[in-house]
């Protein structure tokens, strides 16, 4: 543990403590007279969550829960339930997602307590225990709120000077009761609710209409947070449930065209110096021009180069049909830039400059390269890949054949240099036996300035066999992480040595055996 005095005075002393080890930490304060003590900690470990209403347990279809969950029918991701006083109520086992979703965890449960918080418990990479609690307090109820997505206003866009009506389905799953309704929003667009109250029997449903009115001067692109509240009394002190919606101000005739961007000039060369020490002394310049023909230009910024200098000619907010010039200068250690122009309604236009081409290069490994299946069956081939080239966005394609349906999950993703990801090749037979098919799995760059447009990651050989023939067994996604104190040990003749290690299963539940070889 190390400590450093950040600030000191007659009334205040701030000390930073770093290099902490796992376990409890005791603080001792010596002071003459009264004092206050504030301890603030920071950690890179956190979690996010979503409550999911399971609508079909057979198919596993879910819908995100808005407001508080109902009794007995909800699912939630991750955890332990924590009471109001901070005590643990009950703990549920979690299941890790597979493939593209391997960093997500899932658990279905029915809480026995009506009021709870969510807590995650786990081990960090060093094997130390960590716990994280979310402050949100959930209260189970009998009233479910959901927006009517079949309504024409389900886009939640409101036009300046006009009204918008939101339809909310209110369902009572408990005993008959009288419910009261109101709403509010942070921009004060709320006008009325209809009805303002209603009597609902068990499993009864009514449609609540929430009316909003935007002023004529409302700015395009501004979003207001609308909160719909249901209570058991008219003064709204006995809250039953709530729902949060977002309404965005938009034009009646929406501007869907982004500002146009054109690179007008660039000077300098980074050939032969990029990636070398002398890159810092080589400078390049680029000039671009933006024009917006819609609602008007809002801002011009640069991306993917924080080390250069952007200069933008002065212009009035909302400039229409007016050329706006901009320039950027940097050294050859950072040979790229993206000019980005944003209009008043959120459309973005970009153009890019690169003094060196992007590099497309991957290391990929599939769980198998030979697959057999029966007519009409589907199989999945898990794989991992590492981006050995430039940061970028990539899509994935599989060879098309007449006898197979095949695609990659995820269809596309963005990867930093040296970043890794996992995916699956889904292969389905169209229903007939076939000769050996060769499927090439390729990564395609979304960049226009790249050394090559696409690369082959790996090839899978697929056979569709008759029903009587054995096929490739279902493949599982296996991912283990091992922590060993040291990789080098010494042992004297005739002596024994014991090595302790920790293995963490980062995929689905499975039985493993361990073997030692010398």
From TrEMBL:
Transmembrane portions of the chain: none
Chain ranges of the VWA7 Ig-like domain: 152-250
Pfam family, one: Ig_VWA7
Protein name: VWA7 Ig-like domain-containing protein
